[in-house]
Structure formats: C-alpha cells, structure tokens
Automatic annotation (TrEMBL):
Protein name from the UniProt record: HSP90 family protein
Family, per entry: Belongs to the heat shock protein 90 family.
Keywords noted in UniProt: ATP-binding, Chaperone, Nucleotide-binding
Classification lineage: Bacteria, Bacillati, Actinomycetota, Actinomycetes, Micrococcales
Gene3D superfamilies, A to Z: 3.30.230.80, Histidine kinase-like ATPase, C-terminal domain
InterPro entries in alphabetical order: HATPase_C_sf, Hsp90_fam, Hsp90_N, Ribosomal_Su5_D2-typ_SF
Length: 634
C-alpha cells in the first residue's frame, strides 16, 4: 500500500515564512518580485506596451499596499496558486525548473510576508478575458499565518478591487514588526532591491517625511503626499556617456557610492551566455588572501545580495564586482547562488576576464600596471601558482627580497656574474642567517619565506631551468666557508675545545672557518633535522620518565646546532687568543646569542639569561682588569 506524507501545515508555513530567510527585510523583495513577474506575464499576453507599474503605499493603519499592473489572477488561478504551497505559475512544467523570464520559481515567496504580517490580503483583477469576451470578476484572497485562507470573488465596484487589471497586496503589521512596514524602511528597502528593475517602481511619501521630495521625479497625489520614483535606472555600466572619460568618472562615482572605495582600476565584464554584464573593481589597498571576496549581484535586475561570495576563483580576491545576470540560479531564499554548472562556467569565465586584464596590465609596464603590482602582488603570486601565463609574467615582473636588494629575478641575475646560480631559502629566518655570507661570496640568494614564494620559486625553477634556481643547501653554504690553514688549526685547537665545551650546555657544537664578510663574527648553521632534534631534546627534558625514554630513543647523539666562528673576524681572533677562561666562556656565549639573534630566532628565557650573564662578566672584566669576576655573574 502506498501512502502520502502528512503535512503539518503550521510547521511548514512557519518554516518557510520565518526560518528560510536570514532577515525579514526580504519580504519586500518577494512582493516586488511578484509584481515584476506579473508584469512580465502581462507583457507576454498583451505585448511590450502593457502598463508596467508597481506602486508602494504605506497605509494609515501602519500597513503596506503593493499594487502592480500585472497579469492578475482569476478565481481558479488564485485557488490553485495562492492556496497551494510550492505551486508557482513560473515553472516550466516539462523541465521542472524556473522559466527564464521570471524571477520567482519556488511558489513560496509570498509566505515571507508572514515574517512581518499576520495577514496577507491579495485582491486581483485578471487581464485575461473569458472566451466569450467578458472580463473575469475580481477576486479577494486572505491568507493567515496559521495556514488558513479565504478566497472569493468580489464585485467589480468593491473598493478593495483594483480599478485596472493587476493585483494589490495589503499587509497588516505583525506585533513588534511594525518598523518593517514603516514608510522610511519601505522606501529604503525598495530602493535597495528594486532601483534597477525594468518597471516603473514608485513609492508614496509624505512630504513632511521626505526632505528630498521637491527635487525628486514624481507627481502630487492629494494633499501632503508625492509619488517618488525609485526605478528607471539603466544598469550603471550600460548607461551611455558622451566620452569614455565621462563613463570612467561615472563608474568610479558608482563604486564610491555603492561599495565605499575609489577603485585602483576597473574591468568591464561581459558573459553573454550567462546573460551577465557588470564591472569588477580592483581594490585600492591590499587585502589578505583569506578575506572572503564578496560581490554585489543582481539577478534579472533585482538585487540578490551585496555580499555574494564564491562568484570568482579564490585567487581573484583583489576585485569586488557589481553585476547583473539572468542565467544564474538563486537558492530558494534568494540569498546566494545555486552551485550548478552555469555558476561553475560563469566563475571560470569571470576569472578569465579578470586574468586577461591582469596579464595585460602587467605586460605593458604602465603606471596602472605598476600600481596594481605594488598593491596586489600577493594576488599575482597566488594566480601565478596555478596559471602558466601568469607565471611567465610574474617571473619577469614580481619583486623578491634578494641579496641584491628588492628586485625581480632578472635584476638579481643581471647583478651576478654570467651563468651564476640563483638560490632561495624556504624561510625568512634562513635568509637572514645565510644572506650576509651568500652576498659576500657573490651568491644570488632569494628569500622564499613569504606567502606563496617558496611554492612559486619551486614552480619557476621547474618552468625556467635557465634561471638555474634551486633551494639553498648546507653544502652551498659550507662551500663558502673555507677550512682554516692546518697550522692555524693547531694553534687554536685548545681554545676551540674550550669554547666548544662552554657551548655544549646549549647543545651547540663549535667549528672555525674563514669566510667573508669578515665583519660577521659567527653564524649559526642548523638544518631542519637539527631543529627537530633540538625540539625532541627539549621535550625529553620536560617529559615524564616513560615518555622521555621513548623520545630519547629517537634522538641521536650529535649536537643540533653548529656555531661557525669566522677566523677572519677581529673579535673572534681575540677570543681565540685569550687565555682568560672567564672571558673566553663569556665571549663564546655572547657570540652564540648574537648569532642566534641574527638568525631571526626568538630568544628563550635561558638564552636571555645567558646573554645578560656573559655581558656582565665581560663588563666586569673590562672595568676591573686582572681581578676575578663576580661569582654571582657566572
Ligand atoms: N502580484 C501577483 N500577481 C499575479 N500573480 C501572483 C502575484 N503574487 C503571486 N502570484 C501568483 O502566486 C504564485 C505563488 O507566488 P509566490 O510568491 O509564493 O511564489 P513564486 O513567485 O512563484 O516563487 P518564489 O517562491 O520563487 O518567489 C506565483 O507563482 C504567481 O502565480
């Protein structure tokens, strides 16, 4: 036996009316949409010259009246469409989807009025004559939030009936929701949602409430009120202007008024298959790649939302779009876009147009292109990571931090001897540590530690072998560090051993090499394995016995850091020459901490204590030569 679902009507009405939408404000959008769709249907019946008006009128009792000159409803249509939740006249019966020409499709929008009203009244006069040429009688439908309704024909002269074909919706405010129907709110919402609608949308305003009224287009309608026109605007990017410069200025003003910023540049968007047109504005300041980029989207000229995301590929976080589309589908709440193939294809096409603009801007080396690169280099890096054309350009124009200053890879290569290799460090710390030595050795080093750069340099090295670009390895650095002469090695062996012993508690091994620049006394070499080891040791020390033993099994005996003393440096030579054990120990500790600081690592508290202690010893020895240092400073 097959049964059908039972429906809890009250629950369904409550769900659709109050929980589908994120704000009651959309009730007005749904009413406007029904008016516009009814006008579209009437145009289909009577041609393009059919009247196309939507009038909003605040009622004296705090209610709102929305009157349209649309196709209207007969008693039978009203019975079928208004009395059945989910039934819509706007769906394609065969395809089961919304019809192209209409905004609505789900058959639930009218219920959104229950967010602000306890009762919805719709009176309507159909624009379709009976077969015998007579006009159908006007109808009146009243719906209540508990799911009940009344429907009846009314006399043609009933004061509630529309005088001409079309429909009038009247709402009585729900308690505590009166402000949603207040004249100022209605005007603001209608302007927001409907200013670009292709119908004549007007709102009745009281003159004493409307400071702008004298200058506004409209006509006097009885004492103290005026009709104010809210629609009739062409899409801003389709308006005609005398010159391109005037168009630029007008579209810049539009961005300032609606988006709140003066754009760095503008990209015209046009995707005919999606019925999409609009503009993408390039943000005037850099934003984080993780900032969701949100756009102002109109669907069939009705505002869908001012913060619609996921419309462009993630790398295009540097633009904000304003656009109108006819082929994109809204979600049922009309607060976002439905993720279908059309949206996927549109996202790709929009990305292609933004990308084409960015490529052209970067290729021509114009002031606009340079400004774009300066502000949005992160976006260029993000795009270059996945796009070969952008990578080709980026490799030429993107600035990096290098041992020759900030510049492009071409600049760096030009500053080096013919055929020199380019090296890059995967972290900022490593760059700081290695750069002085690399620069002194004439090695071209690039800092790959900033966002995207390591991956980008990796991609560049694969795509352009001629750059001879590779990550720096310890052998690259070691090659720059010359072994000291064997005689010298013998001479300093004792000192080196003592210094090594002094730094053993820091888990640091000491070696002596000769390298440039001679102003650099020491450098700390440590590889990732070493770091890992060091962390393991720290954990072992902090861990309880059993866990400590397990971890200890994983770490080898070698010290994890290596301090390379520079034998060409005067301070180091003095240190190696001293016979005073306290000075030697304090000097070694100072050099170790200095090298740590130079490597960009934060100091641990034990290391800060070490620095203070060694400084105190050195000062004390300088101030009181020949005496024994203070015990407490050791
Ligand atoms: N002002 C109007 N004039 C003529 N018909 C109307 C009017 N308002 C509503 N209707 C009819 O009532 C039906 C249901 O309207 P409702 O607003 O609930 O859903 P919809 O507009 O079809 O779809 P959606 O839920 O996507 O808005 C419409 O399909 C339309 O046929």
């Amino acid at each position: 036996m097959t049964s059908t679902f039972q429906v809890d009507l009250h629950g369904v009405v409550d769900l659709l009316a109050r929980h589908l939408y994120s704000s009651p404000r959309v009730y007005l959008r749904e009413l406007l949409q029904n008016g516009v769709d009814a006008i579209t249907a009437r145009r289909g019946l009577a041609g393009e010259d059919a009247p196309a008006t939507v009038r909003l009128r605040p009622l004296p009792d705090g209610g709102l009246e929305v009157a349209d000159s649309g196709v209207g409803l007969t008693l039978a249509e009203a019975g079928e469409l208004l009395a059945t939740i989910g039934r819509s006249s706007k769906r394609d019966v065969e395809l089961g989807t919304g019809r192209e020409e209409f905004l609505g499709q789900f058959g639930i929008g009218l219920l959104s009025a229950f967010m602000v009203a306890d009762e919805i009244e719709l009176t309507s006069r159909s624009a379709r004559r009976h077969d015998d040429g007579t006009w159908p009688a006007p109808v009146r439908w009243r719906g209540f939030a508990d799911g009940s309704y009344e429907l009846a024909e009314i006399g043609p002269d009933d004061p509630a009936a529309p005088a001409e074909p079309g429909s009038v919706v009247r709402l009585r405010p729900r308690r505590d929701m009166e402000h949603w129907l207040a004249p100022a709110t209605v005007t603001a919402l209608a302007q927001d949602f409907g200013s670009l609608l292709p119908v004549d949308l007007q709102v009745e305003v009281r003159l004493d409430l409307d400071a702008d009224a004298p200058g506004s287009p409209g006509h006097e309608d009885g004492a103290g009120t005026v009709w104010r026109r809210l629609s009739g605007h062409e899409l801003p990017w389709k308006e005609s202007h005398a010159t391109p410069a005037e168009r630029d200025a007008a579209l810049t003003r539009y961005a300032e008024q609606t988006l709140g910023f003066t754009p760095l540049a503008r990209i015209d968007l046009d995707i005919p298959v999606a019925g999409l047109s609009g503009v993408a504005y390039v943000l005037p300041a850099a934003v984080s790649p993780t900032t969701p980029s949100s756009h102002r989207v109109y669907l069939k000229r009705m505002l869908l939302g001012t913060k619609v995301d996921d419309l462009l590929p993630p790398w295009a976080f540097f633009v904000r779009c304003v656009l109108d589309a006819s082929a994109l589908r809204p979600t049922a709440s009309r607060e976002g876009l439905y993720e279908d193939e059309v949206l996927l294809a549109t996202r790709e096409a929009l990305g292609a147009q933004v990308r084409a603009w960015a490529l052209a801007a970067l290729a021509e080396d114009s002031p606009a292109g340079r400004a774009f690169l300066r502000v949005h280099h992160l976006a260029v890096r993000a795009l270059a990571l996945q796009d070969d054309d952008m990578l080709d350009l980026a490799a030429r124009v993107l600035p990096f931090e290098t041992t020759e200053g900030t510049g492009t890879l071409t600049d760096l290569q030009a500053a080096l001897p013919e055929g020199a290799r380019l090296l890059w460090t995967p972290s900022v710390e490593e760059f700081r540590r290695v750069a002085p030595v690399a620069a002194a050795q004439g090695l071209g080093l690039v800092n790959g530690g900033y966002v995207y750069d390591a991956d980008l340099l990796e991609r560049i090295s694969r795509r352009f072998p001629r750059w001879r670009l590779s990550p720096v390895t310890s052998s690259d650095v070691a090659q720059a560090l010359l072994e000291v002469d064997p005689l010298r090695e013998l001479e300093i062996a004792g000192s080196v051993q003592a210094i090594d012993a002094a730094l053993a508690p820091q888990d640091c091994e000491v070696i002596v090499r000769a390298f440039e620049p001679s102003v650099l006394p020491a450098m700390l070499l440590h590889d990732r394995d070493g770091d890992h080891e060091r962390e393991t040791r720290a954990t072992v020390e902090a861990a309880d016995d059993l866990w400590g033993q397990v971890l200890a099994g994983l770490s080898g005996p070698a010290r994890s850091r290596q301090l390379v003393l520079n034998d060409t440096n005067g301070t180091v030579r003095s240190l190696l020459a001293t016979t005073d054990p306290q000075v030697r120990e304090a000097g070694a500790q100072s050099l170790y901490v200095t090298a740590l600081l130079l490597s960009g690592r934060p100091l641990r508290s034990s290391e800060a204590t070490l620095m203070n202690g060694s400084l105190a010893v050195l000062l004390d020895r300088a101030l009181h030569p020949g005496t024994t240092p203070l015990e407490e400073n050791r």
